[in-house]
From TrEMBL:
Taxonomic lineage: Bacteria, Bacillati, Bacillota, Bacilli, Bacillales
Cellular compartments per GO CC: cytoplasm
Name of the protein this chain belongs to: Type III pantothenate kinase
Entry cofactors: NH4(+); K(+)
Record: residues binding substrate: Y100, G107, A108, D109, R110, T184
CDD domains linked: ASKHA_NBD_PanK-III
């Protein structure tokens, strides 16, 4: 078995693979102040509840976009699982040709998503990851990673309305029945959900023009992908496990 770990700004997602099969996956909140031992207990308990054991883990791979948590999770792996994890970053073989000005700057999660998408779908393609931030990653017909766009995530956007406008409440991220809201909550939900779908359509349209690729597969992932994919036909497929798959693939390329 291998353990794959994706440390995002909101959630840490863990996956346990046997070969190509994802046996279990777990989602923790990203708690920047939690300790090595706290994560050890949490993950140990999740394993125990799933009838799996740290002893069966032959290797661990981690991608992180939260630098202060990397060392904590690495030490947790060494102390409790007894394995030195691979870290997605400089020096690791991803097989991806990065056309970013400074390849070290690209978020590890974006690299991992691109690797998984290239393996599973036909290029050219775009990956949209609805996380804390929403990222668009463009891959051309030759499987080169071109870059993309970063926009505020759905959660951040919704939170900003609540934080900055006294009379706007905190709302559920839920699709309203109509775009013309007749109360504050429905008006906010309409703006956020339908506005976000429109934003995705607009960015994808511009990407297609700039890449000169009228036919381009668009894959969505991340916690909130299904919500937006239901509101636009510019997303061809939702693949919730894309990041975990990418980590499994990169692990195997570095064995
Ligand atoms: N399975 C899910 N169902 C509904 N919402 C989810 C799910 N997973 C994550 N979310 C929400 O999606 C948002 C982004 O989470 P996630 O995709 O894990 O972001 P990140 O990769 O930045 O940590 C968060 O608000 C989270 O609560
Ligand atoms: C854009 C991100 C914040 C997305 O992170 P997430 O929403 O998955 O937590 C992350 O990929 C990141 O910090 N990237 C570095 C900047 C870049 O990719 O150019
Ligand atoms: K992510």
């Amino acid at each position: 078995m291998i353990l794959v770990v994706d440390i995002g700004n909101t959630n840490i997602v863990l996956g346990v693979y046997r070969g190509r099969e994802l046996l279990h996956h777990f989602r923790l909140s990203t708690a920047r102040q939690s300790t090595v031992d706290e994560y050890g207990v949490l993950i140990h308990n999740l394993f125990h509840m799933s009838n799996i054991s740290f002893k069966d883990v032959e290797g661990v791979i981690i991608s992180s976009v939260v630098p202060p948590l990397v060392q904590v999770i690495v030490e947790m792996c060494v102390k409790y699982i007894g394995k030195d994890p691979l870290l997605v970053g400089p020096g690791i073989k991803t097989g991806l040709n990065l056309r970013y000005e400074n390849p070290r700057e690209v978020g590890a999660d974006r690299i991992v998503n691109a690797v998984a998408a290239i393996e599973q779908y036909k290029c050219p393609l775009v990956v949209v990851d609805f996380g804390t931030a929403t990222t668009f990653d463009c891959i051309d017909a030759g499987a080169n990673y071109l870059g993309g766009a970063i926009v505020p995530g759905l959660g951040i956007s919704t939170e900003a309305l609540y934080q900055r406008a006294s009379k706007l409440p905190r709302i559920e991220l839920e699709k309203p029945k109509k775009v013309i809201g007749r109360n504050t909550v429905h008006a906010m939900q309409a703006g956020i959900i339908f506005g976000y779908a429109g934003q995705v359509e607009g960015i994808v349209r511009r990407i297609k023009l700039e890449m000169n690729a009228p036919v381009l597969k668009v894959i969505a992932t991340g916690g909130l992908a299904p919500l937006i994919a239901g509101e636009t036909d510019c997303i061809d497929e939702v693949n919730p496990m894309l990041t975990l798959e990418g980590l499994r693939i990169i692990y195997n390329r570095n064995k």
